[in-house]
């Protein structure tokens, strides 16, 4: 009897491993699958539903949205005031004008996932609005993520609240770099890892983007340090409370780096040389 | 035991799938709670379903939920495959399958309430162990993952038991 059962058990085990292996492949290669046509059709249907939900929510949140926009206007005006005195002794910057000037597109959030360890948002801008994959997304207060996949009228953004999304960040005061990583625990806090032991920092210090990324410009605020812990006696891991309330996120800016393709090409060339 | 009429079961299954998609798409329950109504369909399959067809069915059902609700593709499918693989072995622990008509389904009448509860809770916890470990893809923050498994597992066991009681009473 046992002999008869053995091939059956092997067959079940093999089938289980194939199906489970395929599921893990799908989970790991989610971004590849997003580009498949079947996924695009499904996303189109989902987005249609989310848009209905968005229209309903945005009507009831108009007051809050206006307040946020007004406070952003005040902040921008203050920045303009600060910079206005530079106009007087402005150097000739025509040579620099064509270089590294990022283009910004405003977009509305129509779906915001916050239940998972792989959170994302859907924006109402897509290929028809010149949005491309890998463009950085920021809000007036913090970095949000990057464009993971694009359809004609919408795009899906992988937020910093995805455990697989790491980005470079630094302490504003000391310019010390680290790796920003979400541990999945709270939608307000994120961790800045690999900060060397000799770094001086205080609770309340601001963390900004490092600029060592072709997706985000340098100096975009992220959050402030709320606590820290020593890891293996070698590095600090800082707990950073982000400046943006992800659950109340309504409007964002998508950043187009005009030098993206050129830098990307160089990076690929370098990878090729390594091989 | 009477042979089941499949029409109401198919109708109930479609309703369960729709409820699952709507819940996943529109309700924000936080990262600690995930409601998986659809596993009831797998748990409620007739005894005659062998392990490999059950795994295939569970995989397709999970994939459908993943596709329709915009969650990480393969997550529900992977977790459902595990319970599909374990279903018959676990049922064997709680009942002598030789005495049961192959067309009937696991229910309170055929198993008794305690055994049915044990069957549902074991399968639910197995599903959530696979689901949350696949989602995290790491054993880091194991405390957090365990807490998620315990909270979601307990809530879902209760929901599926209530589901089972209502549907079996009606049938």
What structural keywords apply?
A: alpha+beta; 6-stranded antiparallel beta barrel; 6 helices; globular; B: 171 residues; mainly alpha; Arp2/3 complex 21 kDa subunit ARPC3; 7 helices; 0% strand
Question: Quick summary of this structure?
Answer:
The complex is a heterodimer of chains A (about 280) and B (about 170). Chain A has about 280 residues and is of the alpha+beta class.
Rg from alpha-carbon coordinates of chain B: 16 Å
Number of domains of chain B: 1
Largest sheet geometry of chain B: none
Radius of gyration of chain A: 23 Å
In total, the number of strands of chain A is 12
Q: Which CATH class of chain B is shown?
A: Mainly Alpha
Structure classification of chain B: mainly alpha
The appropriate CATH architecture of chain B is Orthogonal Bundle
Helix fraction of chain B, binned, reads over 70%
Strand content of chain B: under 5%
Name the CATH superfamily classification of the domain at 104-273 in chain A: Rod shape-determining protein MreC, domain 2
Structure description:
The complex is a heterodimer of chains A (275) and B (171). Chain A has helices at residues 2-28, 30-34, 37-60, 62-84, 94-97, 260-274; strands at 103-112, 118-123, 136-138, 143-150, 155-162, 167-171, 177-181, 189-196, 206-209, 221-231, 235-242, 251-256. Chain A has 275 residues and is α+β, with helices and mostly antiparallel strands. In chain A, strand 3 (136-138) and strand 4 form a beta hairpin. The longest helix of chain A is centred in the first third of the chain and has 27 residues, at 2-28. Chain A is globular, with a radius of gyration of 23 Å. With 171 residues, chain B is mainly α. The interface between A and B is medium-sized, with 34 and 35 residues.
């Amino acid at each position: 009897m046992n002999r008869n059962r053995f091939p059956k058990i092997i067959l079940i085990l093999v089938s289980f491993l194939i199906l489970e292996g395929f599921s893990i492949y799908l989970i790991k290669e989610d971004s590849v699958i997003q580009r498949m046509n079947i996924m695009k059709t499904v996303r189109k249907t989902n987005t249609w539903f989310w848009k209905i939900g968005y229209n309903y929510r945005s009507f009831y949140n108009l007051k809050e949205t206006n307040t946020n926009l007004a406070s952003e206007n005040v902040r921008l005006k203050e920045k303009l005031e600060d910079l206005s005195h530079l106009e007087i002794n402005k150097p000739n910057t025509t040579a620099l004008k064509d270089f590294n000037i990022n283009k910004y597109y405003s977009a509305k959030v129509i779906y915001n996932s916050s239940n998972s360890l792989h959170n994302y948002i859907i924006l109402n801008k897509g290929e028809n609005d010149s949005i491309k994959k890998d463009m950085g997304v920021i809000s007036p207060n913090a970095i949000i993520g990057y464009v993971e996949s694009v359809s004609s009228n919408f795009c899906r953004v992988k937020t910093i609240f995805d455990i697989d999304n790491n980005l470079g960040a630094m302490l504003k005061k000391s310019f010390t770099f680290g790796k920003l990583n979400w541990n999945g625990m709270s939608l307000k806090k994120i961790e800045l890892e690999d900060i060397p032991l000799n770094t001086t920092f205080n609770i309340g210090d601001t963390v900004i983007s490092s600029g060592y990324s072709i997706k985000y410009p340098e100096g975009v605020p992220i959050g402030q340090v709320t606590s820290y812990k020593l890891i293996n006696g070698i590095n600090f891991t800082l707990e950073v409370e982000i400046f943006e309330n992800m659950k109340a996120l309504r409007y964002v800016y998508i950043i187009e780096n005009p030098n993206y393709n050129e830098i990307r090409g160089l990076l690929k060339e370098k990878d090729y040389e390594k091989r | 035991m009477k042979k089941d009429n499949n029409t109401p079961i198919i109708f109930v299954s479609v309703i369960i799938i729709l409820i699952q998609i709507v819940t996943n798409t529109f309700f924000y329950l936080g990262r600690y709670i995930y409601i998986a109504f659809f596993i009831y369909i797998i748990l409620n399959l007739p005894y005659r379903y062998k392990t490999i067809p059950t795994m295939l069915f569970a995989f397709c059902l999970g994939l459908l939920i993943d596709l329709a609700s915009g969650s990480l593709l393969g997550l529900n499918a992977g977790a459902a495959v595990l319970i599909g693989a374990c279903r018959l072995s676990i049922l064997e622990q709680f009942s002598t399958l030789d005495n049961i008509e192959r067309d009937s389904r696991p229910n309170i009448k055929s198993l008794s309430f305690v055994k049915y509860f044990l069957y549902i809770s074991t399968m639910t916890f197995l599903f959530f162990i696979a689901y949350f470990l696949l989602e995290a893809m790491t054993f880091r923050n194991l405390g957090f993952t365990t807490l998620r498994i315990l909270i979601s597992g307990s809530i879902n066991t209760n929901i599926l038991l209530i589901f089972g009681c209502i549907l079996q009473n009606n049938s």
